[in-house]
Sequence to fold (287 residues):
Amino acid sequence: MQISPPIDRLSGILERFRVQAQLHHSGVLCGLNHFDACEGHGYLHVLRRGRLDVSHPGARDVPKSMHFEEPTLLMYPRPFTHRFHNPPVEGSDFTCAQLHFDGGSENPLARALPPLIVLPLVRVPGLDLALELLFSETDRVRCGQRLLADRLFEVVVLQLLRWLLDHPQEAGVRPGLIIGLSDPRLARALVAMHDSPGEDWTLERMAERAGMSRTAFANTFRKTVGQTPADYLTGWRIALAQSRLREGRPIKMLAEEVGYANPSALSRAFTAKVGMSPRDWLAKTNS
Fold:
């Protein structure tokens, strides 16, 4: 029996859509602290010591309130209003970062993740090593502290994403990209599309990469990812085009890179997917 070699399920995405972290706070938080979705970024909070009550005003898809008394990681990948209720005097000890997913709401990973991920620190193997380095940097001021802390936070995010790919149900992940990448067969097709979006990805080629029949692949993909393979491929290509347009690349140079015969074909697909032309979308994005 031939065993398929392991594949890298994350690098192809993260090389094209970066996740950046920026140190927000390190130390004790006392009383009420408000984090507003209007700020336009996500958060990664690490409760190091103490107890914490979290509330989510008006939220429907996460618990309205939560209580923690052990070291815990709380990740809000997208802007999401939340409030920390800490002891009023002694407080609780935190290290927190703001999270910025390239492309914002168009970022494929940000869209695929649940609005809140909560994990006791002991649940993620290897996380303690990265956190030990992170805490050593945030506990006292040294040259380059903020830059190094930001990079270490990004390491923590990467380790968390690895854990999610192997434990999606435990994290409450719904059908989508994360669930698809957790399936070894679908992951082979998804990674191939991520790495080579400009190739001619017919249903037959995708199914061949997955080692499945056309029908089994199409049905499994739709059930697991929540859309057809063709729809997913189009979404990935248009997200890449949006990313390149934000970087200042002209649409004339993008068509072949993202799998379209010419700029007109890309423009038509872009308009059908986004609801406006690339020119209008870029103008709205930059306004």
